[in-house]
Amino acid sequence: MLVTRWDKPIVFEDDGLRISVGSPEEALTWLSHTPNQTSRSWRHAWKTCVAVQEGRRSPDDAKVAVEQAVSSTRH
Fold this sequence. Notes:
It is built from 3 helices and 2 strands; from the N terminus they run E-E-H-H-H. The protein is α+β, with helices and mostly antiparallel strands. It has one domain. It is globular and about 35 Å long.
């Protein structure tokens, strides 16, 4: 599987841990371990990252979706 890395990773803190997500594939790993998997932003990020793996969406689309999911988990 080809991994498409973003030029600049998404870096944030979660429960005191510094997390760096640098690709849609890494985002899927992070998303699979987040507690609020029923939120709209989580579902959108998951579907977008899967679509990137299947070649239907761009990696930049996934980055925007993951940034939104990160933002929603911090509130």
